[in-house]
Amino acid sequence: MLWLYLHFPHLLLDHIQRNQDATGALVIVDGSGQAVTQACATAQELGVEVGMRLKTALGLAPDLHIMQANPKQEVWLLEDQARWLYHYAAHITLAPPDGLWAEVSSLQKLYGGLPAIWQTLEQALTERQLTAWIAIGHTPQTARLLALTGKGECTDDKGRIMTALGNLPLQAAGFDKKACSRLQRLGLSTLADVFALPAPELARRLSPELLSTVQKIQGTRADPKTPWQPPHTFRHRADFIQEVEHTQGLLFSLQRILSELEEDLCWRQQDTDTLQISLQHRHQESTRLLIRTTGPEHRAEVFLKLIRLKLDQQPLSAPVTALTLTVKRFAGRAAPTGQDLLGESQDLNEAWHTLISRLQARLGDQALKQLAPSEDHRPECAWSANAVRKPTKQPETEPAPLPHRPLWLLKGPQSLDQTPTHWLSGPERISSGWWDGQRVHRDYYIAQLPGGELAWVFRDHQDGWFIHGWFG
Amino acid sequence: MSELLSSLLQDARVWQGHQHKKTTQPAEPTGYQSLDNQLGGLGWPKGALSECLLDSCGIGELHLVLPLMQRVSNEGKTIFWLNPPHTPYAPALAREGVNLDHVVMVTTQDQNDFLWTLENCLRSPVTGLVLAWPGTLASRDVRRLQLASEAGGNVCVLFRSRRHVEQNSPAALRLELVPDEHQKLKINIIKRRGSWPGQRCSLAIGHRANLASQDSTRVIQGPWAEAVR
What we know:
By secondary structure, chain A is of the alpha+beta class. Chain A contains 15 helices and 19 strands. Chain B is an alpha/beta fold.
């Protein structure tokens, strides 16, 4: 078996810099906010070094941007990397906080040799503007140790790998401090010296744990790695070092996230109809936006247009410090059906979804309604307004006989304050609804008012006269 | 040059008063023969605005567009109702043979949203007919809508108040609707492309209230007529 290890020396830094258009000196500090853990190139030019105290760093570079590391976020970030790596390799294992294993011996045939795999990965890393140290080894631990020290080479020659590994100093081997100092006192300085010791002696004089670590590196002890499964959600986060006050700034990073979403959806052969966007603010509850399309969609530009509309309607309440895009609803991509020879119906279908989504994004979901008759004798209950859905071709059904009704129904009955000039038909008695408390007991007439309008008027049981509709 | 001129004459954008030539602009028949005749045998212009100017609802203005609604909805194109003054009554529309799956009602909060929505509906290929109740419209806005409807090639009917009869408007067809005593609808053509305005006709649409004839004796005349204030 051949293992490939990717070590991301400053993942959080890469991630943040990717979302900024303007770059300044930037450092990542540890959880307590005391020491610098990652420093960007600009900061390093100014003299800031990893491991330095934050106060010293600030003295060297007064306008330093500072970002605090968050363990939860590091986990998410690593999963993000695993997700794209999964496009290239099937067997992936996470090595928190900043590494990934990929099993590559089974990929050699697919890619046509190790150099091709190596090149593909390096290209993918450049595309994503990530820094990673790659190494290959015959055991997971070998690959990891070589990657951590940056001594990785594109080779599957066991001798060469073992020589490179043997030359590593003891400190780089990941032994605990006590074991390390004991080995040094024994006069050993490189890993090759440790490998030369007989195994029973190592276990007896030092510790069984040390032996197991050494054996895992050498490959004489099993070191199973459970394959990672990609989650069935898409989640992407962008952090801003400078708070974003205008929607334009959000759209810049959304554009990149959405194109990654498109790529992800294309790769899964799935579509989605709901995007959840959460905007974090410094001092208040985060704003949640729900972007819905009427039909399944995967194209980034369509989502971006809808988001732009939504943001135009809903200005930012406070500056934004971070943005998260989550997609949880997926639908299998439908094969284009019902397409005629000229391919017209497909376009129309799409145009319908585009138009309705656009209208809903700007006006709100409640602004669009479809009407339907319902089974009730009371005129105000005999119709319903529903959410818009794409009409499907239904077999022609004979419509149920409906009574004669006006085309306009008033939102509520209006009192009749003119004497009608003509009485045209009536009465039609409607008495219903005793069971749900909205009792209706009316006599309906059709009458012409002095203005020439035909009105649907009724008299209720208290002898009041009302207009309920117009024959438009 | 002469080719340009003749093409201008052909599609009736420039017309000569002494000629009553048939124009080639696309249109949808209104479904009423007498009105179609007055409109040069064409009907509702496609890709242009039509205005109906009326005082109040209930004079048969929806019945004027009903044949078109039936046809458009059964062709599978969408009908948009923008800011209708009352609720379009679904059972009545269904009874008249309008496919309600293709009817979408849109309500907007302000004038900007209204114009934006109307423009989007007009430009879309899925739209067959847009009925809109705009309230007050600046002439600049009407021009913008006219351009949008030219891009989309749909029928758009704006229902406006009769106060606007005297104002000029870029709409291609303007009809003034007046009710008469016998439940008929009198139509004055204020403006149309390709010909003189001023034609009048009267549509018998008394059937909208299920009145076969002017037989009001069958109504039970009771004491309640006095109960009305």
